[in-house]
Specification:
Blueprint: E1 4-5, E2 12-13, H1 26-37
């Protein structure tokens, strides 16, 4: 029987014994969700400047 470590509480557990994979149980799954919702976690994003030449131009008014 292989065990894995819960990323929240770091307890060793049998993955076949839980429905909350990759967490050891529902409590750790809820803690992880709460961290995402409070934005404790983030996904790195490379932002481009809005002044780039590849940015779409503002629509032109035909009446001018």
């Amino acid at each position: 029987m292989a065990t894995i470590r819960c990323p929240i509480c770091e307890k060793q557990f049998d993955p076949a014994a839980t429905l909350a994979m990759p967490f050891c149980g529902d409590r750790c799954r809820q803690i992880d969700l709460g961290r995402w919702l409070r934005e404790s976690y983030s996904v790195p994003v490379e932002r481009k400047d809005e002044d780039d030449e590849g940015a779409p131009a503002a629509p032109r008014n035909e009446a001018e």
